[in-house]
Amino acid sequence: MIQFQTLRYYLSEHPSIVGFRWTHSQSWGNTWIFLITSIAAYIILSIFLHLLLLLLFRHRRPLPLGPIPAVHSLSMALISFTIFAGILLSTAAEIRDTRWFWRRYKTTPFQWLLCFPLGTRPSGRVFFWSYIFYLSRFLHTFRTFFTVIRRRKLGFFQLFNHSILIFMSFLWLEFSQSFQVLAIILTTFIYSVVYGYRFWTGVGLPSKCFHFVNHCQIVLLSCNVVCHVGVLLLHFLRGGCNGIGAWVLNSVLNGAILFLFLNFYVKLHLQKRKIVGAVEEAATILGSVKDKDI
């Protein structure tokens, strides 16, 4: 019990968490110039590294990175789970402290998770963890460099997805956008599982499901679509949700990510079916040849 109280203090009751404010003086990386520069630097560096390796290494054999990808996956799994636990405890604390406000305006905690009241400012517990989530998106981009170094592959979807995740996380804080608490809870939970699985396979342990990561991403994107519909309904039924302009842009970007991912997933599934069909056809031909020999 004492350990849980200590954990709750450091994840939701610490003065740095309770007193957090998204301002230029307290928050690193909270300007539009920093956002645009960092995303541009990520894209340019990825393309430059990709072209440089293609020039230096004409063969397509993978370049070994040792335990670095596994260490990165373990770190991201721990960071994601910490953010998940922190924002979960912080959400419970916010519900406890502002229950009187919701009773006055006849709202519920679930409605608050989807729709912030108009005038909400980016300060307090949940916005602290939203800020940590925003910073963790930069660590997430290291997977692009691992892919380029090991496989000499640089896909548009990977660059677009990572850049948009950083951009959307910034919008959540800049405009106190509704739905971000629930989005962070869902994303960090899925990411802690996904990166834990990547660490598991990265250290050489057996993989039971080849498309496990893709299935987790589909679940996350599907939950986001359902929650976005809920935000839209609450916006019209309750007279407005805070940061709805940023939410509209967020929805468009999420839709683009969903379209690109489904397009990739369908192509992967069709390619898999072609391979299976070719194997079955080869087995049939081989069997017929053996029958003729007999």
From TrEMBL:
The keyword Lipid metabolism applies. Keywords: Fatty acid biosynthesis, Fatty acid metabolism, Lipid biosynthesis, Lipid metabolism, Membrane, Transferase, Transmembrane, Transmembrane helix. InterPro entries: ELO_fam. The chain crosses the membrane at residues 32-57, 69-90, 154-173, 179-197, 218-238, 244-266. It is found in: Membrane. It comes from the Eukaryota. One of its GO terms (biological process) is very long-chain fatty acid biosynthetic process. This is Elongation of fatty acids protein 3-like. It comes from Anisodus tanguticus.
